[in-house]
Amino acid sequence: MSLDRDSLLLAYTTMRRIREFEERVNSEFVAGRIPGFLHLYSGEEAIAVGVCMHLDAGDYIGSTHRGHGHSIAKGCDPRRMMLEILGKADGLCAGKGGSMHIADLQHGMLGANAIVGGSPPLVIGAALTAKTLKSLRVAVAFTGDGGSNQGTVFEAMNMAVVLQLPAIFVIENNGYGEGTAVEYAVGAKDVAKRGAGFGMPAVAVDGTDFFAVYDVMAAVVTRARAGGGPSFIEARCVRIHGHYCGDPQTYRSKEELAQAREVHDPITAFRRRVLASGQLTSAELDSIDQSAAEEMDAAVAAAHSGSVPAVETLYTDVYSTY
Amino acid sequence: MPKLSFRQSLNDALRSEMRRDPTVVIIGEDVAGGAGGTGVDDAYGGIMGVTRGLVGEFGRERVIDTPITESAIIGMAAGAAITGLRPVAELMFVDFLGVCFDQILNQAAKFRYMFGGRVRTPLVIRAMFGAGFNAGAQHSQCLYSFFTHIPGLKVVIPSSPYDAKGLLIQAIRDDDPVVFLEHTKLYDLEGEVPADSYAVPFGEANVLREGGDLTIVALARMTHMALGAAATLASKGIEATVIDPRTTSPLDEETILESIEETGRLLVVDESNPRCSVASEIAAVVAERAFRDLKAPIRRITAPHTPVPFSPVLENAYIPSNASIEAAAMELVRWS
Question: Which of A150, B140, B199, B310 has the fewest beta carbons closer than 10 A?
Fold first, then answer.
């Protein structure tokens, strides 16, 4: 599928914004300025962007513990995400959620999810809402290869097929569930075949190639909106950082780690391709890099200067009489 | 006023709310029944017949038969709740909590708080519970203390057809996730139920009987046992107040404390296992807030700390009895 200039600029901009956001989260965390722990999306940007560029604000996504990229791709405000990650009052969840629970229903973002495999059952619920209210919306469940081993994901896939829901299962296979390789942990090895086994179209795609993801998603989202039921995409990708921020990654060889950045970086690949084809210029791309960096510097500054939540809010937003 | 069974009153509540609000849907295994089979539609209407006839009026798009897949049932209902529906999910036996707890504990219960108050989760989870059905260890537990322990959930345990209808209507209209628990031995219980729609508010205990000698707090089927015991005690000159909290989250502490102020004696009757139970919680509240009013130690009558046995002889011994309630009440009144 050929993309027009505006779409190419949007794709690059969003991937770059995700990367700049994550690299700042990383440096802030390493400097000890972020409470808790974090999981970074760097290296997987082509998937979130290739998928979410087909979604409208009213469509839904459910995310994982590694959810910053999905959130930005779906339209969440990085400044308010950064405020949330620092536990500030003006964060997307008023400082009560944190990195692993960023949600923004106004943008159809049903939440990052700190339970591996926790999100797909919820996502099919959003798809049920779309089907029941005949809104023509679709719902995308992002899950990892680790999540693909969870029973909740199997149950959600079967239910989506049985009820013919407008749900799309996107498995981001980055090769590792925490520190254990897919090679070891996925019995069938081929994740996409699992999706097919549930009775829906399933395809594996190079998740480091934005164009490949974008093309596959185009067909799948059209099918879902037309009432054709659920589909399954396995997007094979490479995690640049570890499972968690600060993970020494001793379970990966030095060669593999070097290749993650040098060979498999989806942003580098995108850049090379659009420059080679002459669709975009390096000046345009450099300018996007610059604006993304400035936007995220500002987000970090705003997050540091944001107010902490009032202690009284400990007790609000929950039913409580005791 | 018409007499309805507990089962019919629940059906009545569901039907009236589904007529009132097109976003109310029912989700569960065999809530209609017969999907894809060679026989009739609406073959079950719920395993206990609570949802019978609803598929005929509202269709399969709103009375949604699912596979046996509890995590997906509860998760799908929770996801639908935060995106614009008001689902009533049927878990069937509450024991099946074991295969879907994450979707309740870590998902539905947490959304409102964890997302900074920017989401509503109008979800009802219906389940039956309780022993006395010869159903063995995996189909007979109470488990309401599990739910009561979790912030964000509301927990409703009706004891009469009137309360069943009014509390279920309230549950469906509520914007928080509500666990609605129905005792298996109460489905055929009949009582007066208004034909009109009405809501019974949460957190308001029902004083079923008033007496000055002791306070008995009991839930669901145990309220009927407590009333039976209270009648026997009355013939011996002992007058008991019997309180049904109706909801354990929120819990109406005030009604219990006011009664203790008058009687000075508390007996809690709870069909569940004793450790960390609702009985323990009510005992703790009274010990903490009404210590000076107490004339005798607090007593709990509960099931033993064992699984529910199958053999009817053993199961009968497991369930609190009228005799055990009476004996405990006598001890309390005579304590010095």
Answer: B310
The beta-strand segments (E) located in A33-138 are 60-62
Which pair of structure tokens corresponds to residue A187? 């019995």
Phi-psi region of B49 (alpha: psi -120 to 50; beta: other; left: phi over 0): left
CATH at B237: 3.40.50.920
B79 touches chain A (CB under 8 A): yes
Report the chain B residue with the minimal C-alpha distance to residue A137.
B83
Q: Measured between CB atoms, which of B79, B114, B253 is closest to A125?
A: B79
Interface ipTM above 0.90: yes
CB-based contact B118 A152, cutoff 8 Å: no
Tell me if B197 is assigned to some domain: no
Pairwise CB contact (< 8 Å): A105 & B250: no
CB contact under 8 A, A121 and B67: no
Distance from CA of A170 to the nearest CA of B (A): 17
**Which strands, in side-by-side order, build the sheet including B206-209?**
B206-209, B240-244, B214-218, B266-270, B299-302
Q: Which residues of B touch A139 (CB under 8 A)?
A: 79
Contact with chain A for residue B83, Cβ under 8 A: yes
Task: Mark yes or no for CB contact B76/A125 under 8 Å.
Answer: yes
The pair of structure tokens assigned to A230 is 């659920």
According to the CATH classification, is domain A5-264+292-300 in 3.40.50.12780? Answer: no
Which residues lie below 8 Å from residue A63, measured CB to CB, with a gap of 6+?
A: A70, A71, A102, A109, A110, A111, A112, A113, A119, A142
Specify the pTM: 0.97
pLDDT tens across the length of chain A (322 residues): 679 999 999 999 999 999 999 999 999 999 999 999 999 999 999 999 999 999 999 999 999 999 999 999 999 999 999 999 999 999 999 999 999 999 999 999 999 999 999 999 999 999 999 999 999 999 999 999 999 999 999 999 999 999 999 999 999 999 999 999 999 999 989 999 999 999 999 999 999 999 999 999 999 999 999 999 999 999 999 999 999 999 999 999 999 999 998 999 999 999 999 999 999 999 999 999 999 999 999 999 999 999 999 999 999 999 854 4
Q: How many alpha carbons fall within 13 Å on the CB side of residue A160?
A: 39
Domain limits for position B86: 3-192
Q: Using CB atoms and an 8 Å cut-off, which of residues 242-301 of chain A contact chain B?
A: none
Q: Is A91 on the interface with B (CB under 8 A)?
A: yes
Cis peptide before B250 (omega within 30 of 0): yes
**CA B282 – CA B277 distance, rounded (Å):** 9
How many domains would you assign to chain B? Answer: 2
